[in-house]
Structures are given as structure tokens and as C-alpha cells.
Amino acid sequence: MLPTLIAVGIQVIIFSVALTGSFVVFKFLKGTAQIKRKEIQLGGAAAFFVVMYILINHYAFKTREYLASDFDLIESAYASQPITRIDSNGLKETI
Prior knowledge:
This protein is of the alpha+beta class and 95 residues long.
């Protein structure tokens, strides 16, 4: 369940960044944007939000892929058996 929560957290962060970015561009920088397609027509901050959200999702994919491989590594480490070694004093130590 942990990877699911992390994936949801990442999407919430991406959503927040896109929302904040569109607010800054349109409120302070006075930007404009427009999307015209058969399916949808958006203008202003909504259009910029959609574009920014899609771009961040696209470029953050590699980061999520990298994190997923780390979680697989951690998961396999938890499943592994404990390692014991003998330290310089001759005592057994569990790693």
C-alpha cells in the first residue's frame, strides 16, 4: 500500500505545482493561453493549468520510474534474511 500512497502524493504535488504555476503566470505575469480542439475549448488559466499538468506528468515519469526501482530494492531488502558477522572483538553482530 505504501507505493500507492506515494504515487497519490506525487500526483497531489504535481497538481499543486501546476495550479500554483498557472496562478503565478496569469495573476502576476499577465499571461494568456488557449486550447481549441473538437473535444474541448479552454482559455486563460485553465488552459495553462492543463498544459503545465501534462508537461510535468510527462517529465516527472522518469523520476517516478527511478523511485519505483528504489522501492523494489527496499522491499527486497526487507524480505531478505538478517546477516550476521563476527566483529574484531570476536562477537556476533546482526546487520
